[in-house]
Design a protein that fits this description.
The protein is α/β, with parallel strands linked by helices. It contains seven helices and nine strands; from the N terminus they run H-H-E-H-E-H-E-E-E-H-E-H-E-H-E-E. Bound molecules: S-adenosylmethionine.
Length: 214
Amino acid sequence: MNSSFWHQRWENNEIGFHEGKPNQLLVKYFHELSVAKGRWIFVPLCGKTLDISWLLSRGYRVAGAELSQLAIEQLFMELGMQPEIETVGNVEHWSANNLDIFVGDIFAMSGKMLGPIDAVYDRAALVAFPEDLRNRYAAHLMEMTGKAPQLLICYDYDQSLMEGPPFSVSNDEVHRHYAATYDLTPLASTEVSGGLKGKGPARENVWLLKRGER
Ligand SMILES: C[S@@+](CC[C@H](N)C(=O)[O-])C[C@H]1O[C@@H](n2cnc3c(N)ncnc32)[C@H](O)[C@@H]1O
């Protein structure tokens, strides 16, 4: 997926992925990360998700990465926050109380820009990338967050039935990206009601990725 695909989606308001309330899997499983309030949660490819406001309201600090400036303008407006904006390298840093959003390509961002991260919440980020970019994304995410624990939500379906995004990420693939670094715990696996975009059966899988004793 190139960047113009996503810019166009935001310009045309074709944002079917955006949910009108905090993600119910986040609400149900976030505690599994065991992160203390006041810690930093990184939301890669954040769009203007209401999950950010949910995390802030529970006392967390949130860092995000998003390509679309339009999405982030809407995010700050809907949160009722006035950002301070500065340029850092090839991206813009939009900040307000407890919120740090980097606007640009996630691959142009570094751990140094991001600062210390205590946990990652990946909903619709890994699955937003086609296969050839997912290896690069997973490695970059671990590198930039110092291998912080993750709550990961993926779809698994027959990729021949539909083009992504969201792309299918099988359980085997999750292991390929992350099992060398984390202990992987499947928290939930549910059938997507009515299938994914009505094209065929799909499962939505929730994973907890934590570093064990090694
Ligand atoms: C499927 S949406 C998910 C948004 C959000 N996580 C949610 O749950 O609503 C993927 C988002 O990633 C952004 N995006 C795509 N490629 C990106 C990249 N290389 N760097 C940063 N953001 C990107 C898109 O603009 C889009 O808003």
